[in-house]
Design brief:
By secondary structure, this protein is an alpha+beta fold. The chain has eleven helices and nine strands. Strand 7 and strand 8 form a beta hairpin.
Length: 352
């Protein structure tokens, strides 16, 4: 059975009152490295009326080459909880399939939202540069709503306290930071595929030793970056890619956006200019008074969150456990990142 046929079967179960279900324009789309993603349009006939549903199929890779071990069921529940309980714009999730037989691996089906995903159009003379302050102002407001909504409202079952099952504790802020640092440190043997990786163990120990002040834990997006929102008519139409979401420190999202803003050659953190930039507006709305030094800490903290699974996957590839070329490619971004860590930790002689 093809993926298209499996998707039709899935939709017939999801919409049992549909007299007819068809799929067109089914194609794999680029983006990210942790899921296989496909787009299509479904046509449903219900009660004699025709419906058109733009869809995204998100499918897990084989477990032996998987980089992020996350659950499509947890992601579905999160998206639907956010959609139903907050004003944060997200896709509707139509459901998930954990049995690998229909799609080859676990998968989920979500609404394909409207809006421009090429956020580079907002910068560097792009066609939508006149919208940038309004779009980023709304993006900040959306993030603040996510960070200030009661965790129990979004995650009533506690599934996001430790979604990877690696021993994270969220009983307090200190427990969260300490247990996360312990996870990083205990993971070091699985990521140390080259002597230069020793910088990571220093990073992990530095994070544990130099904790900033506490803030209330929140639901964090986990991959808040310029590629993970859509916009249209000066508004954000959707935050996308929630698979790395978890209970954590809200400054993680700010740190990761700062990192990816630089790497993406965008300037989201400089806007909205009339509010003094993203961080200033975030602080105005939350009263958190997040500092540049705290952003630097959570830049490293959030990067470590990604560095552990990515470098573990690279290590498995180099050990011959699988032969995927993607993981060799990831070495090109992993090794240069060590230089950035050495700068942030003020190594003598590290280039600035």
């Amino acid at each position: 059975m093809t993926l298209e046929q499996s998707l039709v079967s899935f939709l017939k179960k999801r919409f049992p009152d549909a007299d007819d279900v068809g799929i067109e324009d089914f194609q794999q789309i680029p983006g990210g490295f942790s899921r296989e993603t496909y787009s299509c349009v479904a046509h449903l006939t219900r009660g004699g009326a025709q419906e058109r549903l733009p869809l995204i199929l998100r499918k897990d890779p084989p477990i032996e080459i998987s980089i992020l071990q996350t659950s499509r069921a947890v992601e579905h529940d999160l998206i639907e909880s956010i959609r139903l309980n907050t004003g944060v714009p997200v896709s509707q999730s139509y459901g998930y399939e954990l049995d690998p037989k229909p799609f080859g691996e676990a998968a989920m089906v979500i609404q394909r939202m409207h809006g421009n995903g090429n956020t580079s159009d907002l910068f560097n003379g792009g066609p939508d540069e006149d919208q940038v302050d309004d779009v980023v102002r709304h993006l900040c407001e959306v993030l603040v709503e996510l960070h200030t909504t009661d965790i129990a409202t979004i995650d009533p079952t506690g599934a996001l306290s430790d979604p990877r099952g690696v021993g994270i504790k969220t009983t307090s802020w200190d427990d969260y930071i300490d247990s996360t640092c312990e996870y990083y440190i205990s993971s070091y043997p699985s990521v140390a595929f080259d002597p230069s990786i020793m910088i990571l163990i220093d990073l992990f120990q530095t994070l544990r030793r130099t904790k900033p002040r506490a803030l209330p834990l929140a639901l964090v997006h986990g991959d808040f970056n310029p590629a993970n929102f859509l916009y249209e008519n000066r508004k954000v139409t959707a935050l996308i890619d929630w698979e790395n979401s978890r209970v954590g420190d809200p400054r993680e999202d700010l740190g990761w956006m700062t990192t990816m803003d630089l790497l993406s050659n965008t300037r989201i953190m400089d806007h909205p200019r009339d509010k003094g930039g993203f961080l200033a507006y975030y602080n105005e709305l939350t009263g958190f008074n997040v500092t540049a030094e705290e952003i630097n800490y959570f830049n490293m903290f959030g990067t470590a969150n990604i560095a552990v699974p990515v470098n573990s996957a690279i290590s498995r590839r180099l050990a011959g456990e699988h032969h995927q070329l993607l993981h060799v490619y990831l070495v090109q971004s992993s090794i240069p990142a060590l230089q950035a860590f050495s700068q942030q930790m003020n190594y003598p002689g590290a280039a600035s």
